[in-house]
Amino acid sequence: MSRADLHDVPETALWTLRNRAEEALRPGSRFPDPEAVRLYRALAGEDFSRFGRPGPGHSQRAAAFDAVVRGFLDEHPSGPVVALGEGLQTAYWRLGRPDVAWYSVDLPESVVLAERLLPAEPAVRRLAMSALDRAWLDEVPAGPALVSAEGLFMYLPREEVHALVADCAARFPGGRLVYDSVPPWFSAMTLRGKARLSKAYTTPPMPHSQRSSDLAAVVEAIPGVVAGHEVPVPPARPWDKALLRVADLPGVRDLRPTISVLEFAG
Ligand SMILES: C[S@@+](CC[C@H](N)C(=O)[O-])C[C@H]1O[C@@H](n2cnc3c(N)ncnc32)[C@H](O)[C@@H]1O
Q1: Residue 24 falls within a domain, yes or no?
Q2: Which of 9, 132, 198, 218 has the fewest Cβ atoms nearer than 10 Å?
Q3: Is 190 a pocket residue for ligand 1 (Cβ < 6 Å)?
Q4: Taking residues 22-33, what's their average pLDDT?
Q5: What is the CATH number of the domain that holds 196?
Q6: What's 189's DSSP letter?
Q7: What is the arrangement of strands in the sheet containing 102-106, beginning at the earlier edge strand?
Q8: Cβ of residue 59 lying under 6 Å from some atom of ligand 1
Q9: CA-CA distance, 117 to 120, in Å (whole number)?
Q10: Domain that holds residue 228
Q11: Phi and psi dihedrals of 170, rounded to 5?
């Protein structure tokens, strides 16, 4: 039975994969993801119970990212799409657009695992390096691109994130970036080592946070970024609609995670 042998931040890709696959397996699921289920089963030797009880949050996040990528591909059918910190994401297969030029950037140990377990696809190019290493920028054609950073920026220092986004804006004029953020209270909890998913597992520190109300200042602060908006997450259960409405109330909005799109100058 296969195990992943990942540690630190790369290990968190197992947590998110487990949650997406469990959601896809749930009867009545609104999140079909056969490739994630196959991958999850392929890692049967892994003790996923250390990540606590599965929940729908990561599949809702993935579905929200998919909507942004689909919107970009409607305008730019051949891409490119760049997935930073892609881990064991299976968005490429969920989207069902095999010809899209897809670049996957992650740390070497994560890329080795993805290459071992996921099908090789002619359109998918895996780049084994830090997203902060600008060498990957040279591998992607200049011009409009969709850059996604799903579950990545929270683990990186804010200044590094802003400098990277500015470099993306310079390389991909007319492109956009989608990323998600944790709220400051949760970031603080992780920095104190208190974000325990179980007795056996505590999430790594997440130094970078962003509130819903911070987005305008982020747009203002990063050279080459001309606009930004938040992306809603879709409901995973019938009663989620009411919960999502409450999470959007002023006062509550700044306490929940956010997904943001930044538009690059053309
Ligand atoms: C929470 S996981 C998210 C994985 C995937 N995006 C998902 O949503 O399932 C964080 C990912 O970021 C990757 N990562 C951490 N630091 C990175 C860096 N500096 N550059 C690129 N990837 C990084 C890890 O290897 C891991 O795959």
Answers
A1: no
A2: 198
A3: no
A4: 96
A5: 3.40.50.150
A6: H
A7: 124-128, 102-106, 81-84, 146-149, 176-181, 258-264, 225-230
A8: no
A9: 9
A10: 66-264
A11: -70, -35
Count of residues making up the chain: 266
Residue 163 falls inside a structural domain:
yes
Q: How far is the CA of 77 from the centre of ligand 1 (A)?
A: 26
Indicate the pTM of the whole model. 0.97
The residue type of 161 is V
3-state DSSP call for residue 163? helix
Given the CA of residue 85, which atom of ligand 1 is nearest to it? 22
Q: Whose CA is nearest to atom 15 of ligand 1?
A: 9
Which residue(s) pair with 259 in the sheet?
A: 180
Atom 6 (ligand 1) nearest CA: 86
Closest ligand 1 atom to Cα of 15: 1
Any atom of ligand 1 within 6 Å of the Cβ of 107: yes
Q: How many A from CA of 9 to the centre of ligand 1?
A: 7
Strands (E), 115-257: 124-128, 146-149, 176-181, 196-198, 201-202, 225-230
pLDDT of 1 over the 80 cut: no
CB 10 near ligand 1, within 6 Å: yes
- The answer to the question of residue 10 being in a domain is no
- Burial of 130-144, coded b for 16+ CB within 10 Å and e otherwise, reads bbeeeebbeebeeeb
What does the CA dihedral 39, 44, 45, 46 come to, rounded to 10 degrees? 70
Q: Is residue 117 included in any domain, yes or no?
A: yes
Indicate the top mutation candidate among 19, 103, 106 to test ligand 1's pocket, ranked by most ligand atoms within 8 A of CB. 106
pLDDT tens string 209-229: 999 999 999 999 999 999 999
Residue 201's CB is within 10 A of a number of other CB atoms, namely 18
- C-beta of 180 in contact with ligand 1 (< 6 A): no
Q: Is the pLDDT of residue 40 over 70?
A: yes
Tally of structural domains, the chain: 1
